[in-house]
Design a protein that fits this description.
alpha+beta; 24% strand
Amino acid sequence: MKKKTLNLLILNLVITVGIWGAYFYMLHQVRAKSASFGDLKNKVTFAMKKDQAVKDLRKKIELNFREGFDLKSFLIRPDQTADVVQTIEGFGPMTGTKITTQSVSTEEAFGMPDGVDFLKVTFKIEGAKSDVSKSIALIEALPYNIKINKLSFAKSGDASSTLKWLASIDMVLVKLKDVEVKLTQ
């Protein structure tokens, strides 16, 4: 009888340890799945917030266009060519440089909406290095669609002054033709 009791006790102990082992194994699996689910939930939440941010940005852009945001304000009107060139040359006295226009030409704008041309302008800027840099920054800050094709910046070859710098800017602006342009499609 003692042997039978001992066998039952050992069997009970083995079953209890097996049940506890299965319980802890299942608990570990649930925690692992829960952590994995939490990571997945965070990724989904982040993606939803990102998607919402994109939707909000699109709404703001649409509102700006509806409220009168005019793309033509970034283009040069047909009667403004001389004014733009004079404005850029006028930066010279403001910055302590000498800005001269080397060339001005108009070219057909392929790949752009009908009614616009490219205005190609080349300027030469002479002065102290920091002043020439200021002039370039002012040109870049003009409220027009500007593309600088070429910019060269070097010390002037003038032997009388080592403080002289010379910059040459070859740039393209978008200019309206004389006809009205339709920018909406």
